[in-house]
Amino acid sequence: MPTAYRIAPSILSADFARLGEEVRKVVDAGADLIHFDVMDNHYVPNLTVGPMVCEAVRPHATVPIDVHLMVKPVDRIVPDFARAGANHISFHPEASEHVDRTIGLIHEHGCTAGLVFNPATPLDWLMHVIDKLDLVLIMSVNPGFGGQSFIPHALEKLKAVRKIADSAMQRTGRTIHVEVDGGVKVDNIRAIAQAGADTFVAGSAIFTAQDYRAALSEMRAQLAMV
Ligand code: DX5
Ligand code: ZN
Fold first, then answer.
1. HSE of 9 in the Cβ direction (CA atoms, 13 Å)?
2. Which residues pair with 135 in a beta bridge?
């Protein structure tokens, strides 16, 4: 069965003064998910948006909202995002005192749960929680900003995660997505898919394009060649 690849435009690179319109445009252009980057100027050195903006965006997004929490602490804000219409919530293990508890909390609030690995974060955490996760997100930049260059070592990490996810899926029958975030472009998306990703976050590559549909189509054309 061919892999169903998903492209998740990150609204970090959208025009925040016209966010609803930007979300509608990128969904019309074929986005599979809306990637929603939450930064707190504490866990990462930048500040973005919270649950109120997620709630405001929700009616404009006819696809699932993929919330990427770059905040510390994590647990306090999880119920707020669930109430604001998030479908999926990912967090960084370094930002939570109790990783297993946070995964449970996300599920209790009716969302799917993902764990995010920074470029230098070891995959060891996965051994203990893989059977509870719906998604593993590999950062291919250091989190905090859009428009950074893809760190090639992420490809090795993706290969390792793909193996771990595949064996867990075979064992349990549950679906576990492998997502990549940072520096994803038309010219590297194919190699990233070959390394094992099935879900691709792309911010600047889509929102700096004149034509969002063309940008998404070019990425899909590359994925069709995998
Ligand atoms: C970075 C964010 C990313 C960012 C990606 O910390 O998590 O989602 O928006 O932006 P690009 O695709 O421009 O690297
Ligand atoms: Zn992100």
1. 30
2. 114, 177
pLDDT of residue 119: 98
Q: List pocket residues of ligand 1, CB cut-off 6 Å.
A: 10, 12-13, 35, 37, 68, 141, 143-144, 146-148, 181-184, 201-205
Protein residue with its CA nearest to atom 10 in ligand 1:
146
Question: Among 218, 161, 162, which Cα is nearest to 185's?
Answer: 218
In the set 80, 181, 198, 211, the catalytic residue is 181
Residues 7-29 as b or e (16 or more Cβ within 10 Å = b): bbbbbbbbeeeebeebbbbbbeb
The rounded Å distance from CA 64 to ligand 2 centre is 15
Residues in the chain predicted with pLDDT less than 50, given as ranges, are: 1-2
pLDDT tens for each residue of 117-147? 999 999 999 999 999 999 999 999 999 999 9
Beta bridge partners of 69: 38, 91
User: Which tokens hold the place of 223?
Assistant: 């994925």
